[in-house]
Design brief:
Helix content is about 40%, strand content about 15%. It is of the alpha/beta class. The strands form three sheets. A five-stranded parallel β-sheet has the order 8-12-11-9-10. A four-stranded parallel β-sheet has the order 3-1-4-5, covered by helices on one side. The longest helix has 16 residues.
C-alpha cells in the first residue's frame, strides 16, 4: 500500500466541551509535573520556563484541549495521538499555524513530540508562549509513552492501534540496524537512501554517487526507492542524522512487506565519528 499524501495534511478538528475541565485538571497537578525533572526527562532543566502537563492530566482533559503533534508530517502519519493535529516545529510558519489552530478550536493547546529526550516539544512550547499563546502546555512523555498507556487512543498508519503488541520493539529495530562499518560494506550492492533534511545534509552525502536524498514527507520518491530495491533484489539501506528518525520509517517498511532493509546505528554523525577514528 502506497503512502497517502493526504495523511500528511493538517486536519482541523473542533473538540467538544469547554476549557473548564482542562483548567481544573491542570491546576490540580501542574506544579508536581514541572517540579519532577529527573534523569528520565533530561531536558526539563533546560526548559524550566515551559509549563508541562502529565500523561494522566492530558487523558482526563483530552476533550478540552487541542492536541498538536509538532514532529514531521511523516512521523505524524505513522503514529500519533488520536485526533491530534500536526504542525511541524521545523516549519517557519509554525507560530502562525498554531495560532490558527488555537483560534479555530477555541481550546488551549497541548504540544508533544517523541518524548523524554526529544527537544521539539520544548522548542515548540517556547515558540508558542513567545507568540502569545500563554495557556499552551507541553506533554513531554511523547507518543511512545502515550501509545503504551492508551493504545485505544492512538493511531498507527491511519488505523486504531488497539494493542501495544503492534508497536515495534527496540529488539526488532536492533535486528535491522548495522554499525557504520557494516553499513558501508553493503553500500556497493544496495539501494541507499539518505533521509536527512537539507539543513542536516548541508550538501554533503556519505556515499557520493551511490545514494539518493529522500525527504520522508515525499511519499512518491520514497515509494520509488522501495520499489527499486525490491525489483532489483537489493537490500535497502537507510540512514538519517542521528538514528532517531529511522524507527518511524520501519513501521512503513514493515507494512510494505519489505524484509531486506537496514539502518545505520547512530546515523551520519556516527559515520563521521567512525571515519575520524580511522575506519
Amino acid at each position: 500500500m502506497a503512502l497517502n499524501p493526504s495523511r500528511f495534511a493538517i486536519q482541523p478538528r473542533i473538540v467538544a466541551g469547554g476549557v473548564a475541565g482542562f483548567c481544573l485538571a491542570l491546576l490540580a497537578g501542574l506544579m508536581p509535573s514541572i517540579a519532577s525533572a529527573n534523569d528520565d526527562y533530561p531536558l526539563r532543566d533546560r526548559y524550566k520556563d515551559v509549563p508541562l502537563i502529565s500523561i494522566e492530566q492530558l487523558r482526563e482533559s483530552l476533550n478540552d484541549v487541542t492536541v498538536v503533534d509538532v514532529r514531521s508530517a511523516f512521523e505524524h502519519s505513522v503514529l500519533r495521538i488520536d485526533g491530534a493535529l500536526n504542525a511541524s516545529v521545523g516549519d517557519h510558519r509554525f507560530p502562525i499555524l498554531i495560532k490558527e489552530m488555537r483560534d479555530s478550536t477555541g481550546k488551549p493547546l497541548v504540544l508533544y513530540c517523541n518524548g523524554h529526550t526529544c527537544e521539539k516539544s520544548y522548542q515548540a512550547g517556547r515558540l508558542a508562549h513567545h507568540a502569545g499563546l500563554t495557556d499552551t502546555r507541553i506533554y513531554d512523555g511523547g507518543i511512545d509513552d502515550w501509545a503504551h498507556a492508551y493504545p485505544e487512543l492512538t493511531q498507527l498508519l491511519g488505523k486504531p492501534l488497539t494493542s501495544v503488541d503492534r508497536l515495534i520493539s527496540k529488539e526488532k529495530l536492533a535486528q535491522h540496524t548495522l554499525t557504520p562499518e557494516e553499513f558501508a560494506k553493503i553500500v556497493p550492492s544496495a539501494v541507499v537512501v539518505d533521509i536527512r533534511t537539507p539543513l542536516e545534509r548541508a550538501g554533503l552525502g556519505l556515499f557520493v554517487g551511490r545514494e539518493r536524498p529522500v525527504l520522508l514527507d515525499n511519499a512518491r520518491r520514497l515509494d520509488r526507492m522501495i520499489e527499486r530495491a525490491r525489483e532489483g533484489g537489493k537490500p535497502l539501506l537507510v540512514y538519517d542524522n542521528t538514528g532517531r528518525e529511522v524507527p518511524w520509517l520501519q513501521y512503513y517498511l514493515e507494512e510494505q512487506g519489505l524484509t531486506d532493509y537496514w539502518f545505520m546505528k547512530g546515523g551520519a554523525r556516527a559515520f563521521f565519528e567512525y571515519l575520524q577514528g580511522g575506519g
